[in-house]
Inverse folding.
């Protein structure tokens, strides 16, 4: 009787799990179809469109002043910077040069917006990983920035303050004083954030080595912003193609080469320090000048194509306007940073665990209206 | 003034036996004690929930519930009323019988564990001579309830959560057991009231045992927090990841059972720590020994509350560990450390280096 | 690298290329659709050109033709170029996919397909990304009519 060794291989089946669209850790309405084998992820397929509002189609029927207001709602955490992108494109088409005062104010407000967006990101990252208290600390400080904006622009989230040609009205007299107080206050708080989360052993173990993205992949997938800078791809538009007053200030580009979630985290913390340094350099010497250059009531861009890129808190936002000389643009395309960053997710999530996917998504900092437009 | 606490138990006992025949009186006694423990379970559970919310609020720079009653004292009554009045429905295709009995396993495990605690010299329901051993074995019954709940829910997320929890609890029970064993070596007995007697004459066990006892305490706190599925080991109910884990499909009173049971487990772990390390119901340095009418269970509760505060502090400060990091911590770090500590304690006792 | 030098190098890569610089701040190259994949892979692999970063991929409806506009940049040599490709078949427009050259094209071509109806050869999985799978029509085309959802001034 032959003695046969029967080898039975344990068969495990893959199954589909739906993460979202209602989910505490998906930052907005994003649906991810995960194919999981036990705890290991085999495939991530995003399903978008839950907050698609056809902004590009609406821009084809609205006037140039009106399309600025549609961009607030795309990446609502960097709403000023989105407005700035469209205003700069239209000004490029009309060949208007705005005054130095406008440039400096646009830069200061853009950096304050970047600070507010990174504060919210920091709070949410802690919360996603389980340290629920960080959310409250971040929002307590973010409220101060919202108060400054409310005084000057009148709104806390969708602020329509930049118009093609300049600003809608001058800054409030208290703006400079309150901004300086806020910067002095926040400089004492940011080291507190570092002590709470950055040096924590559990946090480091959850984020170091998680979600590795190489520099070549970052360039190939078109990832920009802190995602790319954490992998060594120097993609900061403020350094590459400076706009507004960025060529007059001195700041370092946050660049790390490890490519994991911890590097992306460090990039954003360093960007917060650099933003405060930029504001410090500009806040005391806002030059005098025109608030708004005169434009016609009905703006018509000459026939041609115009492209302008800016650096939002999430990465490179590009605005492409194709005009045929009429009062509405013929085609507007918004190159959103989140869309390209999302395409990286499937590539870097093969073979990792679900908890790592949550940590990676937290470090990518998605805002879904930015992806869906 | 009469020794009121001393006399309550014996007064009631005598009175019952005088008015009823013996068998009936014994049964009545059992029923009274059981009802008392159920009430204690409910009240402690509910007020720990309120304490957790208040402590969380203070850490997060806000006030917490303060509308319902002064300092929000009646908030838990409002919460209990809400939970009781919720509709209990059974989702389609759940395994009916298992689904219904799963919460009861957890409660029964917690209640039996609570029955052996020495709240004070007189208030101890069960003073058996294998006290610690019994306590430890019975508190593991809760795992069955979690696994059953996850399986019977017919829900992928609940099943993942239940499996993770089962994994975690079984691993960390080893550490809990070994650190308890270290202290039992020092005390010399498994019976809980004996252990407290040893501490009355010699000082708290954590001071008697110095270094190995302190290490045992730290390991016990880590492993105990993991046993109760609290942060930083709360993957089971990681809200940011998988909905609500194994109790996703439960609602109303059944959810309340799981929820309360988690807090009671926290109470049990803290009580074990207090009895074994910090002297149970004894007052520090014996300051109220002479005052005979002083209710000693007050000291017990004060010490337990301090340890519970420590556990809540952990929860609101640290992020969460991942499943494999959790298991690495236990099997590669805590377990060897525990074994070495046990040997050190044995050596310390043999060489008589205790205080 | 200056636009004239770029134009000289790229002119040698294929026939029938049309260059233009009017109405735009970059050099525009219009490529016939049969040569798209060939020219694009040379744009990336040629070490003098080295266009490795596709920063904007736009679908476009020029009225009679449909097509795609690629904005390309080189991260090392720091020059930019705009590549346009079009097809005048509006019933069944098909173009080559460049996702194997620039991985970012995978998602952007899904967006172009979703809104313009342009199919891409050799794409790993063409599907509707933003709209529901049973949506009828291609919304960003100029001749799209939707009485219920569009508000026309």
């Amino acid at each position: 009787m032959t003695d046969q060794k029967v080898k039975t291989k344990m068969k495990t089946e893959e199954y589909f799990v739906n993460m979202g669209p209602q989910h505490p850790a998906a930052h907005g309405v994003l649906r991810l179809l995960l194919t999981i084998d036990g705890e290991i992820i085999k495939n991530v397929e995003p399903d978008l469109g839950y907050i698609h509002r056809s902004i590009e189609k609406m821009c084809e029927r609205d006037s140039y002043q009106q399309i600025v207001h549609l961009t607030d709602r795309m990446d609502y955490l960097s709403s000023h910077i989105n407005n700035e992108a469209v205003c700069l494109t239209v000004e490029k088409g009309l060949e208007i040069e705005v005054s130095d005062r406008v440039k400096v104010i646009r830069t200061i407000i853009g950096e304050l917006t970047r600070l507010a967006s990174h504060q919210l990101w920091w709070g949410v990252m802690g919360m996603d990983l389980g340290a629920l208290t960080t959310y409250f600390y971040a929002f307590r400080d973010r409220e101060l920035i919202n108060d400054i904006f409310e005084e000057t622009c009148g709104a806390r989230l969708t602020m329509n303050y930049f118009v093609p040609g300049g600003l809608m009205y001058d800054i409030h007299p208290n703006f400079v004083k309150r901004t300086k107080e806020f910067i002095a206050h926040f400089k004492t708080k940011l080291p507190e954030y570092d002590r709470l989360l950055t040096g924590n052993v559990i946090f480091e173990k959850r984020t170091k080595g998680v979600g590795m993205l190489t520099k070549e992949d970052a360039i190939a997938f078109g990832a920009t912003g802190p995602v790319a800078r954490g992998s060594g791809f120097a993609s900061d538009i403020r350094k590459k193609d400076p706009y507004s007053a960025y060529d007059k200030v001195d700041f370092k580009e946050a660049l790390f080469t490890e490519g994991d979630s911890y590097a992306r985290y460090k990039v954003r913390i360093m960007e917060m320090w650099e933003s405060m340094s930029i504001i410090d350099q500009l806040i005391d010497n806002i030059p005098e000048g025109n608030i708004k250059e005169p434009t016609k009531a009905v703006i018509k861009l000459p026939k041609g194509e115009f492209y302008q890129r800016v650096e939002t808190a999430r990465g490179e936002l590009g605005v492409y306007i194709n005009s045929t000389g009429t009062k509405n643009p013929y085609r507007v395309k918004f190159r959103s940073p989140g869309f390209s960053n999302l395409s990286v997710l499937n590539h870097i999530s093969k073979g990792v665990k679900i908890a790592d996917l949550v940590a990676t998504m937290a470090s990518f900092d998605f805002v879904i209206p930015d992806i869906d437009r | 003034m009469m020794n009121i606490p001393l006399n309550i138990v014996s007064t009631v006992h005598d009175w019952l036996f005088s008015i009823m025949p013996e068998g009936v009186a014994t049964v009545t006694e059992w029923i009274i004690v059981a009802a008392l423990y159920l009430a204690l379970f409910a009240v402690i559970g509910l007020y720990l929930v309120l304490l957790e919310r208040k402590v969380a609020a203070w850490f997060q720079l806000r006030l917490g519930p303060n509308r319902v009653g002064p300092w929000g004292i009646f908030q838990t009554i409002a919460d209990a009323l809400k939970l009781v009045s919720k509709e209990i429905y059974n989702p389609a295709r759940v395994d009916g019988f298992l689904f219904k009995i799963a919460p009861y396993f957890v409660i029964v495990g917690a209640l039996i564990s609570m029955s052996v605690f020495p709240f004070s010299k007189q208030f101890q329901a069960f003073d058996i001579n294998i006290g610690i051993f019994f306590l430890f074995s019975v508190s593991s019954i809760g795992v069955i309830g979690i696994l059953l709940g996850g399986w019977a829910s017919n829900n992928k997320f609940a099943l993942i959560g239940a499996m993770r929890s089962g994994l975690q609890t079984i691993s960390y029970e080893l550490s809990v057991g070994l650190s308890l064993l270290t202290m039992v070596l020092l005390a010399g007995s498994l019976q809980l009231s004996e252990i407290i007697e040893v501490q009355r004459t010699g000082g708290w066990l954590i001071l008697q045992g110095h270094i190995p006892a302190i290490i045992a305490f730290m390991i016990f706190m880590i492993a105990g927090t993991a046993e109760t599925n609290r942060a930083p080991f709360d993957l089971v109910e990681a809200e940011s990841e998988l909905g609500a884990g194994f109790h996703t499909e439960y609602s109303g009173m059944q959810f309340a059972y799981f929820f309360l049971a988690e807090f009671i487990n926290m109470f049990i772990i803290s009580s074990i720590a207090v009895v074994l390390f910090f002297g149970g119901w004894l007052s520090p340095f014996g300051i109220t020994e002479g005052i005979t009418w002083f209710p000693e269970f007050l000291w017990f509760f004060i010490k337990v509350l301090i340890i519970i505060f420590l556990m809540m502090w952990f929860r609101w400060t640290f992020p969460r560990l991942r499943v494999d990091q959790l298991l690495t911590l236990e099997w590669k770090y805590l377990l060897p450390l525990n074994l070495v500590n046990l040997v050190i304690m044995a050596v310390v006792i043999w060489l008589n280096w205790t205080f | 690298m200056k636009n004239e030098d770029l134009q000289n190098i790229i002119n040698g890569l294929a026939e029938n290329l049309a260059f233009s610089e009017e109405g735009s701040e970059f050099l525009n190259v219009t490529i016939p659709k049969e040569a798209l994949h060939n020219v694009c892979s040379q744009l990336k692999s040629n070490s003098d050109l080295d266009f490795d970063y596709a920063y904007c991929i736009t679908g476009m409806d020029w009225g009679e033709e449909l097509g795609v506009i690629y904005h390309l940049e080189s991260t090392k040599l720091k020059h930019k170029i705009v590549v346009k490709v079009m097809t005048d078949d509006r019933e069944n427009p098909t173009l080559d996919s460049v996702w194997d050259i620039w991985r970012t094209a995978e998602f952007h071509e899904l967006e172009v397909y979703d809104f313009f109806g342009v199919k891409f050869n050799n794409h790993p999985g063409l599907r509707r990304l933003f709209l529901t799978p049973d949506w009828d029509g291609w919304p960003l085309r100029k001749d799209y009519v939707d009485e219920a959802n569009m508000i026309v001034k």
Summary: Chain B has 14 helices and no strands. The CA atoms of residues 176 and 220 of chain B lie 6 Å apart. Chains B and C do not touch (no CB pair under 8 Å). The first helix of chain B runs from residue 4 to 19.
